[in-house]
Amino acid sequence: MITSVTLEAAATPTAPALVLRPWCVEDVAALVEASPDPGLAGEDDGLSWVRAQERGWVAGVRFGFAVLEEGRGAAPARLVGNVVLKEVASGKASAEVGYWTAAKARGRGVAPRALEALTAWSLEAFRADGLERLELLHQVDNPASCRVAAKCGYAYDRTLASAPPAYPLDGHLHVRRAAA
């Protein structure tokens, strides 16, 4: 059983290193400020969301990571996004990944660097359980997610039909397979 993991993504010439670690209660205020989800409008919503992430880790089926950008000098690390591995099950060949980046951190390679760290860890950590492929889904009106998928080696697989109300638009399915 995996109880906690910390991942890292190296700094680039234009952006600091990233640290990916499980969400915790201390992240709630930063989460509410940074999240693009309108459902996280206040501290209570943020706390409920963080508690759901914690339950996913305990159950071993959903592994959500807060993505933090290392501070410069004495500045503390700051929350810049989220990545998640979900729908993991022993004997199941596929799982899904997802992510979001805080608006203030977009355009600095946060999503691809965090997704690549999550991908490498996932395919290694769950290989013995039969994980062979990761799926990335996004709505067709999100070309930035197509670019992130391509940068991280997730090949376009197909377009999925909408399924309102949860998925009001068609979606793209991208797939990355474990190396043989």
Protein model, in words:
- This protein is α+β, with helices and mostly antiparallel strands.
- Helix content is 27%, strand content 29%.
- It is built from four helices and eight strands.
- An eight-stranded mixed beta sheet has the order 1-2-3-4-5-6-8-7, with helices on both faces.
- Helix 1 crosses helix 2 (43-59).
- The longest helix is centred in the first third of the chain and has 17 residues, at 43-59.
- The chain is globular.
- The chain starts with 6 loop residues before the first strand and ends with a strand.
Spatial strand arrangement across the major sheet: 1-2-3-4-5-6-8-7
Rough shape?
Answer: globular
Order of helices and strands: EEHHEEEHEHEE
Helix content: 25-40%
Largest sheet: number of strands, sense, barrel closure: 8 strands, mixed
Number of strands: 8
Task: Give the N-to-C terminal Cα separation.
Answer: 25 Å
Poorly predicted tracts of residues = none
Taken as a percent bin, the fraction of beta residues is 25-35%
Mean pLDDT: 93
How much is the radius of gyration in Å?
A: 16 Å
Number of helices: 4
Find the structural class using helix and strand composition: alpha+beta
Helices and strands in order, then pairings?
Layout: E1 7-9, E2 18-22, H1 28-34, H2 43-59, E3 62-69, E4 78-86, E5 94-101, H3 110-125, E6 133-139, H4 143-151, E7 155-160, E8 171-177
Q: What is this structure, in a nutshell?
A:
The protein is of the alpha+beta class and about 180 residues long.
